[in-house]
Amino acid sequence: MTARVVFKKASRWYGPVMALNDVSFELGPGVYGLLGPNGAGKSSLLKLASGQLRPSQGTVELLGRPAFGSPDVFHSVGLCSDTDALFEDFTGLQFVSALLSLNGFDEVQARKLATEAIETVDLKDAMHRKVGGYSKGMRQRIKLAQSLAHRPEVLFLDEPLTGMDPQNRKRISDLMKRLGDDGRTVLVSTHILHELEQVTRRVLLIHNGRVLAEGDLGEIRDLLDRHPRSVRIKAADTRGLARELVSLPDLVSLNLEDATGHLLAEIRKPDAFFSKVQELSAACGVEEMWVTDENLESVFSYLVSK
Amino acid sequence: MTTADQALPVRPLWPAAKDVFFISIERMLPRPRSFWVFALLALPVFFGVLLRIYPPKDLPLTGFELDGIVVALFFIRNLLPLVALLFGSALISDAVDSKTLTYFLTRPISRLSIFLGEFMAYLVTVLTLTVPCVVLTYLVLCVGTPQGTGFGATDLVQDLGACALTLFTYGGVFALLGVSLKRPLIPGLLFLFVWEGFVANFPGDAPNYTLTAYARSLIRHRPSEEGLAELFSKFFPVGESVLVLGIVGVVSLALAIWIFSRREYVISS
Amino acid sequence: MSSSQIYEQHYRRLDASIPLRAQRWIPIAREGLKALVGFRAFLGLIAIGWLPVFGRLVQVYFTTRFPEARRVVPVDDKLFFDFMAMQLPWMLLMSAYAGAGLIANDMRTGGLLLYLSRPLTLVDYILGKFSILFASLSMVTLIPGVVLFLGARSLAPDVLGDAAHLLLLPKIIGFSLVMILPTIGLVLVMSALARNPRFAGLGFFFVFVGTTVAQGIAWQATRSPYAGLASIQACMRRVGEWIFQVKPTRMTAALPAEWALLVLVLLALGCFYVLKTRVRAVEVVK
Asked: String of b and e for C30-39 (b: at least 16 CB within 10 Å)?
């Protein structure tokens, strides 16, 4: 993996307040979700990664160069910040073209790339209107357009889905996925967990300025052995199935839900449990089985809960 | 798409500064604040027109002398430093306040080119607002009137040069204030009205330490009427004035650039 | 034992309105002042604004010890007028500092809607902001003036102790109001017109300085005392000269004080009219 974003023991203080504490990770191509509650340090992390802030300790590298004070790397970096700031008197097209001109594109190229980026975020109809008159979702999309118009290798997206309607959220989520599949590094900070889950399984969980976990969502979940996995099973003969399962050594609890008739199991070793259920599926009429807490929201709440 | 191995260098200084300039001028010049500043700078023109329409009996001054007073007192001493404070202190802090500085800081351009582009936009904006007012004041007060006899175009050009240099120097000083302080307004006003206002009229060498004393020395067609000496207490040779104002402007700009290049801007929602 | 229900009232519509409480502007004023007092620069400006009081008191004390000095620096109405007139520039700085962001910040951040979503009217809002400035500016004009008067009276009872000199008190209050009220109007208008406090503060100075310089030029050109009407500062000074009955300056000597006062009154009224039309928002409670 070619690491494009590298944090090595990076810390950042704002006066006496510690925003990030001894953070280390590496990001290669693909989409990564940056998750954490408010005040966890997500924005500080993105600001350090995008070279807007200098680490108080440790190093932050972007494309092999120190992120702070290396403007050359921004040929290949795009940032969609969380601030609702635009050049209000510019039209959408002017706004994106002007910023492309700062990347060194001539007027014709800038206009062409800007139009393409605006089309990508589905704002073509509004591109000749002043951005000051855009709705919140449109403002978010034009910010996104400027961040990807120069086709950067690394994209930092801070809350990119904020204010968008479901249709556009889906569109932008698909776009992020495409960019990741295309070999770009996309670091997305968001609170909309279920939509991030559609885009990536790779996450960076941050809380109180520390990275709590990093990697594939399933792998992270496996490491959370303090929290047994919850499995829900729908079967014709739930009582018979329960009788068989109760002897499993790694079963923590087993309950029968009165309202639905489903069997609810808490287990420590899912593989052995799933094999056993598989064996019994014909005899007990197992119709459906699903893990209820392997989603991002559950993992996230397990990690940040004390 | 580029890769890390084929990394492109930072864009050259001047092309990048030019691109910043075009963005900044668009955001600086066609704004309501520019309109109001222009309206205030145009007051002498309005006043001159009134004088032409309703000329008072026994005018104590010639148009030539009145124009000298307007340029020295209205423009150089009072309004242009305020214009420089308004636009100069806002060079970077305006982008910080509007949270748009991030767009410049995350592009492959050096901070030097950002600052120079912004400063060029400042100069073009303030000159666009000032030059027509100075020229029109001259035309209204001097051309075609008996009072205008003896007044040459050379003086007008010198006046314009003096205005430009004043705007450059004060612009540099207030740009320095703007990047150094979070709230540059009160220190800027104190500098203009306490330091510059009083010290420039002190006796002895005290005026040597004010910018306004050098700036007003550039207005050569000052009137010789009694009572005006108090407005022009100490004069320096033109060469010395240009040199001092130029050096102060350049040094202030260099310091401002140095601070801007090193400073972090925490811009958050 | 069972019972049959005959009537039950779960909910009754109240056909009345809750009256607005009186002095609704007080919380705005109180919170605004609290916020200002939290800034060291604000306290510093006030502290410096009080230095001349001590200077003048030393002057008065000096004249009590050396009565012959009264021929050069007399303790009379002019001393108080000069003191008040010298406070004007400091009052302008205070206005720019304390007043520039009062409305501009609310309009920029949407705070205005928060205010007006409470049982407050637009007039309450403006009155609240007005009070913040009134209190701030009084701290460098009215209050120091009164303190100077009381201090001087106790230091030099032989000169200021008689009943006739008690008239100085309303004169100080009157001149303070002449300086404060139009200034508040102007700075609030600037704050309402510009969304950025820096531009509001500078715009306010532009108007003050621009009109004063314009007056200077007009006077140079015409030697007409009516040129003073172009300058807010000159009008304030002329009214002050009239209130304290001191000799006017050369530039304003023949300017009728009533005209100057009229200009200031019109300015203040105009400012409050602009304020009311500018600060537009939905008034939740009428």
From this structure: eebbeebeee
